[in-house]
Design goal:
Largest sheet: none
Low-confidence stretches: 1-21
Number of strands: 0
Helix content: 55-70%
Structural class: mainly alpha
Strand content: under 5%
Number of domains: 2
Radius of gyration: 41 Å
């Protein structure tokens, strides 16, 4: 050290402090990540309903979840530490997603079984009768009009609604134009 000039010694010391600081920061971030992973596993194990699971997913793996927030600090890491941190965060995401999927399927099955057992179904009871429906409003009005005119002494004569050219002109001996 005696042979190095004063500026170089200060530069070397500041570089060493920078490396140690960044190394400490990386280790702290990895420790924080591991702690968040343990807490997420414990919270997932404590979840018992679908609502608990959706809340856990939103708080842990969602857009504003703990794991997503930790990936935002990824840019502050030194270049040498990024692969290690990135690999570990991806492993944790995959493990948590797998655990979530398994727990979700178990809870859904349990909720379905509970719903089936709570709804006691007696297959010997008659089923629901189908709804027969009703008449169209215009049919109801026409029948009312027919009844009123029938009460007044008129007779109802029904004819086809669509009359062809033959019925309108040819059968009446009208020459074609």
């Amino acid at each position: 050290m005696a042979r190095l000039q004063g500026g170089k010694v200060a530069e070397m010391l500041s570089y060493c402090v920078f490396v140690v600081k960044n190394r400490y920061k990386t280790m702290a971030m990895i420790d924080e990540l591991e702690q968040a992973y343990q807490e997420a596993e414990e919270a997932l194990a404590a979840a018992e309903t679908s609502d608990d699971l959706s809340e856990w997913y939103r708080a842990t793996l969602g857009r504003k979840g703990n794991i997503k927030l930790m990936t935002r600090n990824f840019g502050t890491l030194p270049k040498e530490e990024k692969p290690q941190f990135g690999r570990r965060i991806n492993e944790i995401k995959t493990a948590l997603q797998t655990a979530f999927d398994e727990k979700s399927s178990r809870i859904k099955m349990a909720e379905m079984e509970a719903a089936i057992t709570s709804d006691a179904l007696d297959i010997t009871m008659p089923g629901r009768r189908p709804n027969r429906g009703g008449l169209h409003p215009s049919t109801i009005v026409m029948r009312e009009i027919y009844r009123i005119f029938g009460d007044m002494g008129f007779q109802i004569y029904r004819s086809p609604d669509v009359v062809t050219d033959q019925v309108n002109f040819e059968l009446l001996n009208m020459p074609p134009e």
